[in-house]
């Protein structure tokens, strides 16, 4: 049902094999960061951002590098900051779209630049999209798709259902996710 619902906003159909139900988005963050944890690995977190990423990274011994957002450009990613911080041990970068606490909604063009930067650096983009239903105005929400939660989407406290969604054609994350939930 989640794959079908999320596919409504995409130009392709998600497979249920790419959806991993969790007890809320918090558990999805925990599972993904645990899978990315390797000795010496680091992760790029946005500043300002959601503090649970930093706490979970510390729990998993992932070194944290904070990249800046550009308030004068609608809180877009500062690509110079990302490039300066990334190194051979960087495994991923987190984006939050729509942004919390800044309220930004990234354009398709900006997300395309994020994807190209990640490809160039050889890292995964963790896209936290739990506020995707709160995009208003001239900048429509453009899904990238990783984390979602029904709790924030439908205002149903106590319904602890979240999900990471993978776009993982080589099955690298999916294999680890499968065994994490088994």
Protein architecture, described:
There is one protein chain. This protein is of the alpha/beta class and 182 residues long. The chain has a single domain (2-181), classed as Type I PLP-dependent aspartate aminotransferase-like (Major domain) (Aspartate Aminotransferase, domain 2, 3-Layer(aba) Sandwich), CATH 3.40.640.10. 35% of the residues lie in helices and 19% in strands. The protein contains 7 helices and 7 strands, in the order ααβαββαβαββαβα. The strands form 2 sheets. It has a 5-stranded mixed beta sheet. Strands 6-7 form a two-stranded antiparallel ribbon. α3 links the parallel β1 (42-47) and β2 (63-70). α2 crosses α3. The longest helix is centred in the middle third of the chain and has 14 residues, at 108-121. It is globular, with a radius of gyration of 16 Å. InterPro entries: Aminotransferase_I/II_large, PyrdxlP-dep_Trfase, PyrdxlP-dep_Trfase_major. Residues 2-144 form the Aminotransferase class I/classII large domain. It holds the Pfam family Aminotran_1_2.
């Amino acid at each position: 049902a989640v794959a079908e619902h999320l596919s409504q906003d995409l130009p392709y159909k998600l497979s249920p094999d790419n959806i991993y139900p969790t007890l809320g988005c918090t558990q999805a963050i925990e599972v993904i960061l645990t899978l990315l944890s390797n000795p010496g690995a680091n992760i790029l977190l946005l500043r300002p951002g959601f503090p649970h990423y930093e706490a979970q990274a510390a729990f998993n011994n992932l070194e944290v590098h904070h990249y800046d957002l550009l308030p004068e450009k609608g809180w877009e990613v500062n690509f110079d900051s990302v490039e300066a911080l990334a190194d051979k041990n960087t495994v991923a970068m987190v984006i939050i779209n729509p942004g919390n606490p800044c309220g930004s909604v990234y354009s398709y063009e900006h997300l395309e630049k994020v994807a190209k930067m990640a490809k160039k650096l050889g890292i995964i983009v963790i896209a936290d999209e739990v506020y995707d239903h709160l995009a208003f105005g001239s900048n429509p929400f453009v899904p990238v798709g990783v984390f979602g939660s029904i709790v924030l989407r439908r205002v149903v406290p106590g319904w602890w259902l979240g999900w990471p969604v993978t776009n993982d054609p080589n099955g690298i994350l999916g294999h680890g996710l499968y065994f994490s939930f088994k």
